[in-house]
C-alpha cells in the first residue's frame, strides 16, 4: 500500500510540472502577440525574415531581377549578334585607319580615305549605344536611330548614282556607307524587339506590363537619346557635304584624266597651244608644276598670259595626286612616285620632249627628280622660290602630320565648305581648285602623304636626283625677296640651288615678292622674261649667266 500511494504522489507532481510549463508557454505566446500587436517603432523589422519570392497571387515583384527580357532566346540572339557586329565594325575601322597611312592591297580608293573612316566611326557609335543601353529600350531612341537610317539610305543613293563620287570612293566607301545604313536599321529593329520582349516577360511574370521607370533607366534613355541626336547632326553634315561634292562633280575641266600606276588612280593633264618648229627644230613644251596649291589657282593664268604674248608656243599643266581633278594615290606616296606618274601621263597622252620644267615651292622637288630621270628630253629648268631638300624637315614635323590627320578626320563633315557655300558664296571653282581647295579630304590626304615621307623617301630621291642631274641643263632660279630677308637659312639654300647645274641662266631675287612670286607684277614680269630666255637657249640661242636682286 505504501508503494502504491508513493507512485500516485509522483504522478501528481509530474502533472503539476507539465501544467506549469504549459502555462509558461501560453504566457510567452501572449507576450509575443502583445509585442507584435504594438505600433511599429525604430526597432521594428520592415521585411519578414524569409520573404517569399512570389506575391500571394503567384506573380513576381516588378523589381525582381528575374523579370528580364534576357529570358527570351530571341533577345539574347540579338545581343550576341549586336556585339559581333560591333567587333566586325571595329576591325574594319582599324583597317581603314591603317590604310590612310599604308594602303593594303586592294584597299586603295581614289578618294581621301577619310570618307569611309567617318561612316564606319558612325556605325561603331550606333552599335555602342545599342549595346550599352540594350535593356533600356525607348521610343525616342527608335525614332532618332530611324532618322539616322533614312539619311544614310539617302547617302547610299548619292554615292551610287553620282559617277564621280562612286569612282573616287570605290568599293571600300560604298561598303562602308551600306554597312552603316544596315546597322542603323538593325539598331532600330533590335530596340523594338527588346521593348516587346520586356513587355512580354513583365506580363508573364508580374501580371502586367511595367509602366514605371527607375531613375537609372530614365538617365539611360536620356543619355542614349542625346547621343543619337548628336549622330543625327553628324550624318546631316556628312550628307550635305556629299551633296556639295555631287555639285562640284559637274564642274567641267579642260584636258583629260589619265590612269597611271597600273590604273590605280587617274591624274589630270591638259595642254594649251600647238607644236611649232624654229629653224627646223621643235620648240620646247613648258611643263608646269604647282607649288603648295592647285596649279589652276597658282600660276597657270601667268603661263596662259605668256602663251598669248608669244613668249611660249605651247605648255602643259597637270594636277599632282590629290590636287584639283586628280585622284589620291595609294599611301605611302613620295615625290619620286609623283614624278613617275607625270612621266606615265605624258607618255600615255602622246607628249614628247623637249620640255622646259617650270615649278614652284614644293613642286620643284618633283621637277628636279623628273629632270634627272629624263635628262635628254629636259632642256631647261625654272625654279620659282624652290624648296631645298635640306628644308624638307619643315613640312615633315609630327605635329603638322597629326594636325593634318585631325583635319582629315573631320573633313567629311564639311563644316568650312558648307559655311563658305551658304554664307560666303563660295563657288565650285573655289572648292575644286581655288582658294578653298584646302578644305577637301583629297587635298588634306595629299598634304599628309607629303608630310609622312618628306624627310625620308622624298629626301633620298631628290638627293639622288641631284647627284645625277645633267650639269649642262640651263637653269633659272627666281627667289622671293620677302622670304630671303625674313629667313636667312632660306636665302642660303636658294643660293645653293643656283648651283644645281653649271649652266645658270639667271638667279633673281624679286625684292617685294612673297613666296608666290607671280602675285606681284614685278614677279610675273621677271618670270616671263626668264622663261623667254630659257626657250631661246633651248632653241640653240645664247644665254647670259646673271645674278640680280
Automatic annotation (TrEMBL):
InterPro entries: AB_hydrolase_fold, DUF2417. Keywords: Membrane, Transmembrane, Transmembrane helix. Signal peptide: none annotated. Pfam families: DUF2417. It comes from the Eukaryota. The chain crosses the membrane at residues 80-102, 114-134, 146-165, 171-189, 218-238. Residues 1-62 are annotated as: Disordered. Gene3D superfamilies: alpha/beta hydrolase (3.40.50.1820). The keyword Metal-binding does not apply. Residues 36-45 have a biased composition (Basic and acidic residues). This is Mitochondrial integral membrane protein-like protein. It comes from Delitschia confertaspora ATCC 74209. The lineage of its organism: Eukaryota, Fungi, Dikarya, Ascomycota, Pezizomycotina.
